[in-house]
Amino acid sequence: MLRVHGLRRSINEKTKEVKAANACSASSHDKAMFQIDQNEILMTEILYSQATANLQVKADLDAAKKQVFELEQQVKDLKAKLQALQEAEKEADDLRTRVDKLKQRLANQETQLAKKYASRANEEKRALVNDMMDDCNIIMEMTWAALFPDASYEGWKSKFATCTQEYIEKIMNAGEEEEGKSSDSASRGSDQEE
User: Fold this and answer.
1) What is the pLDDT of residue 2?
2) What is the pLDDT of residue 13?
3) The dihedral of CA 55, 58, 59, 60: what is its sign?
4) Which of 41-55, 109-123, 132-146, 158-172 has the lowest mean pLDDT?
5) Which residues 6+ apart lie within 8 Å of 167 measured at CB?
6) DSSP single-letter state for residue 167
7) Cα–Cα distance measured from residue 107 to residue 114, given in angstroms and rounded to the nearest whole number
8) For residues 162 and 137, is the Cβ–Cβ distance under 8 A?
9) Which residues of 85-118 are buried (b: 16+ CB within 10 A; e: fewer)?
10) CA angle, 4 then 10 then 14, to 5°
11) Distance (Å) of CA 63 to CA 59, 74, 130
């Protein structure tokens, strides 16, 4: 019996060792399963966070696409407005050029008309002065004949003609000077208006 008892002890010890080994093995298995489950949970959390991040990125991408579309529409609208403004600016430049040409043309016409009418006015003035002097000459002859019926008027006529010519030149020069002053003041007035 001793032997059996000794064997029992050995079997009991072996059984305890086996149970301990099994328990340790089960414990290791449980630990491994726990770690596997924990890894699966971590993996699920990672996949969930990646899916959430992907959804956020997709939402951000959709918002960015929408904003790009809106900005493209604004760019198209602004291009249309810019084109209209450029056309208006071109028309304004054309009109400015046309106005400048018309002003130049008007100034040229004004100068030509001023010269034309100045020369015509001088001719008419000279004709009026000559008519006036002829009238004066006739009046002088009639007056001479009434005052001095026996004397010849021809001697005095040449002196009167010389004086008359000097007087005509004096009248014409005075008229030109007055016209020059009035045209200067008129041109100053038009310059001030501009």
Assistant:
1) 41
2) 72
3) positive
4) 158-172
5) 133
6) H
7) 10
8) no
9) eeeeeeeeeeeeeeeeeeeeeeeeeeeeeeeeee
10) 140
11) 6, 16, 97
The H or E element that residue 94 is part of is helix 2-147
Rounded to whole angstroms, the maximal C-alpha distance in the chain is: 211
Q: What is the predicted pLDDT for the residue at 11?
A: 67
Q: Is the dihedral of CA 167, 168, 169, 171 positive or negative?
A: positive
Q: How far apart are CA 11 and CA 18, in angstroms?
A: 10
Q: What is the CB neighbour count within 10 angstroms for residue 132?
A: 13
Q: Tokens representing 64?
A: 């960015």
pLDDT in tens, 72-104: 999 999 998 889 889 999 999 999 999 999 999
> How many angstroms separate the CA atoms of 138 and 132, rounded?
10
Residue 3 pLDDT > 60 = no
Q: With bands split at pLDDT 50, 70 and 90, how would you rate the model's confidence at 163? A: confident
Owner of token pair 């016209």? 179
Q: Which pair of structure tokens corresponds to residue 53?
A: 């991040």
Task: Report CA 5 to chain centroid distance, whole Å.
Answer: 116
Domains of the chain: which residue ranges? 2-193
